[in-house]
Design goal:
The protein is mainly alpha-helical. It is built from seven helices and no strands.
């Protein structure tokens, strides 16, 4: 069966782009299709994508450079390692994610949202580092929390660029 025939199956398991993701193989296939689309292969298949990448690498090389096939293999191995790491992390987390834990997490997130909204109401404008400190969470978690609140229309975001450090 050709790859294009496999794409026509129904159900979330065979539709990686629809967020089904139950089948790691189909998730990987979906990622590969997206990578191929980004490379502009036009759906010609993996060999066409490799040839295009090789051509791009030849155009970028100058003088004595490493073998382009070694660079290609390094890139492919790096992508595969990232995919395997992501699949391992997801599988590990899913093994411990019971319905009770999902409910507890949702309750905790609602509580944090309430605390964040209260802090914003009291202080007006707060940066994410100060909010994280006040909520006793990491700044990355505070950024995620504020982004969720913005998605729900509960807060408005303002972005500010930082000056680059002097070398």
């Amino acid at each position: 069966m050709e790859a294009k025939d496999q794409d026509s199956k129904t159900g979330s398991e065979s539709q990686p782009e629809s967020g089904g993701g139950a089948n790691p193989m189909m998730t990987g296939m979906g990622m590969m299709k997206k990578m191929m689309a980004q490379m502009g292969s036009g759906g010609e298949g993996p060999m066409a994508m490799m040839q295009k990448m090789m051509g791009q690498m030849r155009n970028q090389q100058s003088g004595e450079a490493p073998n382009p096939m070694q660079n290609m293999m390094g890139m492919c191995m790096g992508m595969q390692a990232e995919m395997l790491n992501a699949m391992h992390t997801t599988t590990t987390m899913a093994a411990f994610a019971t319905p009770e834990l999902h409910a507890l997490f949702a309750t905790w997130m609602e509580s944090l949202e309430g605390e964040a909204l209260a802090a914003l109401a009291q202080q007006g404008e707060v940066d994410t580092a100060a909010l994280a400190s006040q909520l006793k969470i990491s700044e990355a978690s505070a950024i995620h929390l504020v982004a969720q609140l913005a998605t729900k229309g509960k807060v408005h975001l303002r972005a500010q660029a930082f000056a680059a450090p002097a070398n």
